[in-house]
Inverse folding.
């Protein structure tokens, strides 16, 4: 089999339906299978997939295991020469799957992963080829932007024309929109892997519930000599954060994942991250207590307060790289002999 398409769903029934419709409608001239791992959705996602898409190999997880662990379940069952990891809120444009397979086959043998161009629903470009380890000042800016988004006070065109001149050397959101270039990593919402690369590097580290799992895997690939390429000749559309918005736990897990990654790959910046988390979350709590937290109603305020308390508790539990749990990286099972 040429291609296995593996996607994870969690309470995104209608979005997942549209994703699967575009896969089966647009994908041609390539022998492929689709595997969906449902992370214990409570909105009927699994039942919809089973009824409307009988060709899909559905794996029902008994818990919400996060993106990486769920993808590992699907990848372990995959039979393709190439393995396409996807979010359930990504829609194919044209024959994107075949285009990515062709790019991989026609490119150098040492290319282990290819990421397509990511488009927003309105057709604008969403940067997706990035660098892994960021310098300290950029980490602080990212933390500020996470809690106090720049887009609220600074128009996008100002950010790109003014700040972009200063930031493009460190932050790939401000890189030119080139056709093809290498990257430290490409966004895990849609990335094609060569099976041999994952056999060598292992699958996703299951410590990561959400965010940074693709960065960690990409670093491991590159350390083994595999190249990661962004190529605009294939395009997909991303419906922004359809699952993230339904799960308030994500903000906590994003902080946890960033700490896991920097403990492993840039421990010199770890304490700066911890201090940044504590300061920013402390400010958010003060604003919330003053009624300036941008929330509506006491229930939402209580939920926000609980999230901020969890982030602060996390910064105490993982106070140094020595307190970070060890990696949990499963191997990609070999193909059965009759397939290989």
């Amino acid at each position: 089999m040429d291609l296995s398409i593996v996607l994870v769903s969690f309470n995104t029934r209608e979005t997942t339906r549209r994703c699967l419709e575009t896969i089966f409608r647009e994908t041609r001239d390539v022998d492929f299978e689709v595997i969906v791992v449902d992370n214990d959705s409570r909105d009927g996602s699994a039942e919809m997939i089973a009824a409307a898409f009988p060709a899909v190999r559905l794996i029902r997880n008994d818990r919400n295991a996060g993106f990486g662990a769920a993808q590992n379940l699907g990848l372990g069952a995959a039979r393709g020469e190439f393995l396409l990891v996807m979010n359930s809120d990504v829609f194919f444009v044209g024959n994107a799957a075949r285009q990515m397979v062709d790019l991989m086959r026609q490119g150098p043998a040492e290319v282990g992963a290819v990421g397509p161009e990511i488009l927003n629903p309105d057709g604008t470009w969403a940067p997706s080829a990035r660098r892994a380890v960021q310098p300290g000042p950029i980490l602080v800016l990212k933390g500020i932007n996470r809690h106090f988004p720049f887009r609220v006070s600074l128009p996008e065109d100002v950010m790109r024309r003014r700040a972009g001149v200063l930031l493009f050397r460190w932050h790939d959101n401000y890189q030119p929109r080139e056709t093809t270039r290498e990257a430290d990593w490409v966004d895990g919402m849609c990335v094609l892997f060569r099976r041999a690369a994952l056999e060598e590097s292992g699958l996703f580290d299951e410590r990561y519930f959400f965010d940074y799992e693709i960065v960690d895997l990409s670093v491991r690939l590159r350390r083994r000599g595999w190249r990661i390429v962004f190529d605009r000749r294939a395009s997909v559309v991303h419906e922004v954060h359809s699952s993230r918005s339904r799960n308030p736990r994500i903000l906590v897990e994003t902080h946890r994942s960033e700490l896991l990654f920097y403990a492993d790959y840039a421990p010199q910046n770890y304490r700066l991250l911890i201090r940044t988390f504590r300061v920013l979350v402390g400010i958010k709590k003060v604003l919330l207590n003053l009624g300036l937290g941008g929330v509506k109603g006491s229930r939402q305020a209580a939920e926000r307060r609980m999230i901020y308390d969890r982030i602060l508790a996390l910064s105490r539990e993982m106070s140094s790289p020595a307190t970070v749990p060890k990696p949990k990286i499963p191997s990609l099972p070999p193909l059965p002999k009759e397939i290989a």
